[in-house]
Design a protein that fits this description.
twelve-stranded mixed β-sheet; methyltransferase; alpha/beta; transferase; three-stranded antiparallel β-sheet; 609 residues; Rossmann fold; SAM-dependent methyltransferase; SAM-dependent_MTases_sf; 2 domains
């Protein structure tokens, strides 16, 4: 949209606007992602909302049930968003009218991009004070704070202080006392501003475009949650696929979770704070207090964001539909060729327990074969219980790998039941697929384990099958890999050629390969060490073979020399003269026998006729 076509009556320019700069995020999530879903939940119908700072335009679409005012510093951004908002103020917080208050103020991009560099600089505390003043009694503020010691900085190959791009207006380090550096300092600043912090969510894998928001209080309390384990692993594994990192962010996030530090290592936080109500003020819409435990991006437009809510009977699934859309009863993720995602399945309780993959990895690292055997035997038995009379498994259980099964004592359950197979699969193929996925992650991830280092992925799958008490052969493993390729192709929308190429790549996965995902220096080094070890073993085998061939060749030469010496001796010649008549007599006897047989053959044929 150009300035000429922009609705000028919606844009206010009090001064200090940045005319040649844009803050709108380049990377955007479907329907605005978890941040937009959280904002839509917090804003009641008919509320007056101030969106301070640059946000994904989809967030404004999610707030279509409210009256939205945007506060920006960029004039091009104001022109781009003017159609989506009732009013846009350009130039920073100083341009806000003093008499304007709002039911909800959203600063989910932080406070630094709210302030214009063309006007008088207020600083973090004074910007916060201005936004707090805009919150009417009984209203709420949703504020983002970046973590200077977050996971994204721990795995980055480029240090945070080396930024030289134009967007580096501020450098967020822990020595800057004008900015809070952790959740406790943020709570203190909000309390000093006469707000009451009520909830906080950890943003993963990035603070600017998080695909998962997790309640920090629950993260601190429920360190062994299989749900948090799966969400953190999935968010961090998918959030760094195009980056080169120092170490595996997914493994680091899961370790932080089980150490009770996942909230502290979050790349950023979203803090919700309320302003105490004034009894003398008129009644205003109240903010929804049914706050989610987790919000996770589904990756598919129209379906919305996957929610986890805390109810009287524990955690339960929920699904937010995007504004103006309805969630279909059986919505495929990309294709129904082999698998799909059923949104209706996300309506029941979230099963408790720890993630099976994490338990297996822990047992493998400790070389605890007894625990491995118990877990795998229970997993195989649970799969057998899901099979029908023909020995086939359908629905969510057919896709229940070790990364989507939680264990609570002796109870096994599917964590996310929305992933479903279109057709039923044989039980042995389902088991082999789950074991193969775990074996591939174990070997390519460089995890220590109690088995021989010469095993390939299929061989380790066979060994794991033995621990389950089932005879899993390589033919079954090959069939399971084909099923894995078909399922992955359906979930990612690959065509026939893409599926064939994927199956070829999966069959070729070797222990010396690095894991799929982000290029991690740590894991690439481990893969290099495994390759060097394999090359050393092959070199030693080649040297041993050459030495064996050399020794055999020397023995053969000695034998030939001995034979040559013996063949020229007097005894050899005398023996040869004695043996020659016997050979001739034997040859003559054989010839006479053949002639006699030939002479008797015709009468025998006549008798048979």
């Amino acid at each position: 949209m150009t300035t000429e076509t922009a609705p000028a009556d919606r844009i206010t320019l009090p001064g200090g606007e940045m005319l040649a700069w844009s803050d709108l995020p380049q990377e955007r999530l479907a329907d605005g992602g978890p941040v937009a879903a959280l904002a839509a939940r917090l804003v009641p119908p008919g509320a007056r909302v101030l969106v301070a700072g640059p946000h994904d335009p989809a967030l404004l679409d999610q707030l279509g049930h409210a009256e939205v005012t945007c506060l920006l510093r960029s004039h091009p951004d104001a022109v781009a968003l003017a159609q989506r908002a009732a009013h846009v103020v350009v130039g920073g917080p100083a341009g806000l009218p003093d008499d304007e208050t709002y039911d909800v103020v959203i600063a989910a991009a932080g406070l630094d991009p709210v302030e214009s560099v063309e006007g008088t600089r207020l600083g973090w505390d004074r910007v916060l004070a201005r936004l707090v003043a805009a919150v009417r009694p009984g209203g709420a503020l949703l504020l983002r704070l970046d973590n200077p010691l977050g996971l994204h900085r721990l795995v980055a190959t480029t240090p945070w202080y080396a930024g030289r791009d134009d967007s580096a207006w501020t450098i967020g380090g822990v020595l800057d006392r004008t900015h809070p550096a952790n959740r406790d300092q943020l709570r203190e600043r909000l309390t000093a501003a006469e707000l009451q912090p009520v909830a906080c969510w950890a943003a993963y894998p990035d603070a600017s475009t998080p695909t998962a928001l997790l309640d920090t209080d629950h993260l601190d309390r429920d360190a062994g949650s299989g749900l948090f384990d799966a969400v953190l692993h999935g968010a961090c594994a998918g959030g760094f696929t195009n980056d080169t990192v120092l170490q595996d962010p997914a493994r680091l996030a899961v370790d932080a979770l089980h150490a009770g530090r996942a909230a502290d290592l979050a790349p950023g936080w979203l803090m919700l704070a309320h302003r105490p109500a004034d009894p003398a003020a008129p009644t205003t819409p109240s903010v929804d207090r049914d706050l989610p435990v987790a919000l996770v991006q589904t990756g598919r437009p129209g379906i919305g964001v996957l929610e986890v809510l805390h109810g009287p009977s524990g955690w339960r699934w929920g699904l937010t539909a995007a504004t103006g859309t309805t969630v279909p009863a059986a919505a495929p993720f990309a294709s129904r060729e082999a698998a799909y995602r059923d949104a209706d399945a996300l309506s029941g309780p979230v099963p408790s327990g720890r993630l099976l993959r994490t338990l297996l990895l822990d047992a493998a690292l400790r070389r605890d074969l007894a625990t491995l055997r118990t877990l795998l035997h229970g997993y195989a038995g649970w799969l057998a219980d899901q099979a029908d009379t023909d020995g086939r498994i359908a629905g969510a259980a057919a896709l229940a790998g070790t990364d989507n099964v939680v264990v609570d004592g002796e109870r096994y359950a599917v964590l996310d039941p929305s992933w479903r197979a279109t057709d039923a699969l044989p039980t042995d193929v389902v088991l082999a697929r789950g074991l193969w996925r775990f074996a591939a992650g174990l070997l390519t991830g460089g995890y220590a384990h109690p088995w021989s280092s010469t095993l390939d992925v299929a061989g380790l799958t066979v060994v794991l099958g033995g621990l389950t008490g089932h005879d899993v052969d390589r033919a079954t493993v090959a069939e399971a890999v084909e099923a894995e390729a078909a399922i992955a192709a359906a979930l990612h929308g690959l065509d026939h050629d893409g599926r064939v190429n994927l199956a070829t790549e999966l069959h070729a996965v070797a222990p010396t390969d690095p894991p799929v995902g982000a290029d991690s220096y740590q894991q690439l080094r481990e893969a290099w060490l495994r390759q060097r070890e394999e090359l050393t073993r092959l070199a030693a085998l080649t040297a041993w073979t050459e030495e064996l061939l050399t020794s055999r060749e020397r023995a053969l030469r000695r034998a030939e020399t001995t034979i040559g010496l013996l063949s020229g001796s007097l005894s050899y010649r005398v023996g040869r003269l004695a043996i020659t008549p016997a050979r001739l007599a034997k040859r003559g006897a054989r010839a006479a026998k053949r002639r006699a047989v030939a002479a008797l053959a015709p009468p025998q044929q006549e008798e048979q006729q």
